[in-house]
Amino acid sequence: MNKWKWLIWVAAGALLFFYTRTDTKHDEVSAKPTDIQTYDPKYNPNQSLADYLVFRSMMSGQAKMAITGSSVTRGSGSSHQSKTWRGRIEANLRNTNPALRDLTISNHGHSGYTSVRLLEDHVTAPILQELPDVLFIETSVINNHNKNVSLDDTFASLNSLYKLYSDALPEARIVFLSPNPCTENKFGPTLNQFGLKFTDYVEETADYIKKQGWNYFDTHGAMLYHMSSKNITLPSTLKDGIHPNDRGYKIWADVLWPFVQQKQGTTPSTM
């Protein structure tokens, strides 16, 4: 008798599970066409990066985002990864839409790496394997300047990075961004062997990237503008003259976030 009771309970539970899943699936299917059209890039060709991530989540069940660059992408100088610009942008995205509540931004920043070294297989292979929907590439020009990488080699490496990822990830949104402003150079002379300053690399790479028509965010300029408008001194945002502290990373995220939300091809509002 006990055996039959047990079988009856199992059968009842299975039926309940089946109908619950059927109802849930029906609700999802009925809501999907409208939602997809709202976020589909075919209907919104200039959609924001945030909206594109929502669309990709609806299509595949999970949106993916990755970043690559140097130590300021890695998060050196912060007290915790949640305090970095990556961690803060991740938290912001998770709060924008239920479709992004489990989003993780994978971090492929490497301390001391130039833009040339970002092309090494152990850097690129994990990114390509992840198939990110959005990829941020920090130009690493702090290290390019310090380690005397010529501007020609810098441009060539950026071109190779774009070709590699755009060819392998044709549906991904690729964005280059400059590193943060610095007050001093602890790893090299103010002028490198080419007679160039760090800011020369920022300005020249910005011009090059824009001429190629690639997506670009001027972290360096946006942070300086924000700090000037808020009477924040640059040294107070840095741990060691180069790497941001928690305050500096917060400012980085604060100025980057409007760009992530902004329709592509328009100018984000200034914080």
From TrEMBL:
Q: Where is the SGNH hydrolase-type esterase domain?
A: 69-251
State the protein's name: SGNH/GDSL hydrolase family protein
Superkingdom: Bacteria
Record has Repeat as a keyword: no
Extract the CDD domains matched here: SGNH_hydrolase
InterPro entries with a match to the protein in the record: Ester_Hydrolysis_Enzymes, SGNH_hydro, SGNH_hydro_sf
For this chain, one GO molecular function annotation is: hydrolase activity
Keyword terms, alphabetized: Hydrolase
Its source organism is Paenisporosarcina quisquiliarum
